[in-house]
Design brief:
five-stranded parallel sheet, alpha/beta, two-stranded antiparallel ribbon, 18 helices
């Protein structure tokens, strides 16, 4: 199936691109009207026909509604693989991506996370879970879902470990997952797209200064309630004061000439969260919004990791964390040494949690690479990881996982029936 814009590319569009779009509508005007919460939300409503088609499975083939998580994935074929190839995505009875290698054996490794866990843009047998399973000689389950936050992955882990428990968990976190924690509705940060609906989702509200962490359920907890996304009054009542929307509005209105009109919303948030003063906010509205967003997002992920570790301690499970990154993040880090998530990495290291840092893995390879960074990244990425990138992931985390596993996987276990070549 042809896709006019891959979902990963769409989700990566930033507030800056939205600002440019909206600003273009006001060219020539001496002072444009500010983008209000209501005007922004009005542009993102769904029609009843769109909701009908999505719930019935007639349109928007990427995902299906889930009351618990916002959405889960549907079996599909998309022409979004390397060399413009068709990728096959197949999901089992528990909405997991199907297990192929050693599926007839007991499974003691479950994986959770985002599209880099789901392994978007490769076919079923090309995922890093399948590469890892083939090497270890034991199955690895894949509960990843594209577009999910750290919080959604945590919620799924809590449910799946009751239904399909495993002694070992690989928990994957992508660079944007921290920010997704704070999204009550992904369309508060992203435009509508013709290929999929972005439903509401469970999320968290935080205040890093006060140490506040509040878990919030899906605002649309039934299929019938999804129709609320067609109702402007309902949407405004529920999202007009939303944290993520106020961050976006700060970017969209950053160039307004009248300071009171352009930063009133973000000022209230910045002062409540102890970021900056009114004068500092007025001087650099976008920078203030970015700092507030980052601080809140990483604080949220840190609290979720603490909840994961508490669950693991209670149940006797071991967790291996893996952090993943986009090609643009890797390229910027290689060129400038910039790492916006350094505070989160420092938190993980301070807690002495098992962590596989794929950014560091790429940096180590690039230290011995003399070609152009774009050529290097093409070896591994087609938006998401291609099959070679998935193998890179499997090999990057293999040593840390094998060190954890007891007993050792069959590939690393003494076997008297195996011939050893010398």
């Amino acid at each position: 199936m042809s896709n006019p814009m891959p979902r990963r590319q769409f989700l990566s569009q930033t507030a800056a691109s939205a600002a440019a779009l909206l600003a273009s509508r006001a060219l020539g005007a001496p002072e444009a009207e500010p983008v209000t919460a209501r005007s922004y939300l009005a542009a993102h409503l769904y029609t009843r026909a769109e909701v009908d088609d999505w719930l019935a499975g007639r349109a928007f083939p990427f995902a299906k509604y889930s009351s618990d998580y916002g959405w889960l994935l549907r079996s599909a074929k998309f022409q979004d693989g390397m060399d413009d190839s068709i990728c096959v995505y197949t999901y089992g009875t528990s909405d997991e991506r199907i297990t192929i290698n050693y599926r007839d054996r007991p499974c003691r490794i479950n994986t959770y996370g985002n599209s880099f866990t789901q392994c978007h843009q490769v076919s079923d047998g090309e995922t890093w879970q399948e590469a890892l399973a083939a090497h270890l000689h034991e199955p690895v389950r894949n509960f990843g879902v594209g577009g999910w936050s750290v919080y959604q992955a945590y919620l799924r882990m809590m449910q799946e470990e009751k239904r399909h428990p495993a002694d070992y968990i690989i928990f994957n976190i992508y660079e944007d997952d921290h920010f997704r924690n704070l999204d009550a509705w992904r369309n508060l940060r992203a435009k509508k797209h013709i290929q999929f609906i972005e439903p509401t989702l469970p999320h968290v509200r935080v205040n890093a200064r006060d140490g506040r962490f509040e878990e919030c359920p899906n605002p649309c907890p039934t299929p019938e309630s999804v129709y609320h996304l067609c109702d402007l009054d309902w949407v405004c009542a529920h999202f007009e004061e939303d944290f993520a929307l106020q961050i976006l509005l700060a970017h969209l209105n950053a160039k307004m000439e009248n300071p009171d009109r352009r930063y009133a919303g973000i000022l209230a948030l910045a002062t409540t969260h102890g970021i900056v003063t009114r004068e500092q906010t007025a001087a650099n509205l976008s920078a203030t919004a970015d700092e507030l967003h980052r601080r809140s997002a990483y604080f949220a992920s840190e609290r979720i990791v603490e909840k994961i570790e508490a669950f693991a301690a209670q149940t006797g499970k071991r967790v291996l964390y893996v952090v993943s990154y986009s090609p643009s993040f890797i390229a910027r880090h290689a060129a400038e040494g910039v790492r916006p998530d350094q505070s989160f990495i420092d938190f993980m290291r301070a807690k002495k949690l098992p962590l596989v840092d794929l950014l560091a893995g790429h940096a180590a390879e690039l230290a011995h690479y003399s070609g152009d960074i774009k050529d290097y990244l093409k070896h591994y990425f087609v938006g998401h990881y291609n099959p070679r990138g998935n193998l890179f992931t499997a090999l990057a985390l293999k040593d840390a996982l094998v060190a954890m596993l007891e007993p050792k996987p069959p590939a690393y276990r003494a076997d008297p029936d195996v011939t050893r070549w010398k």
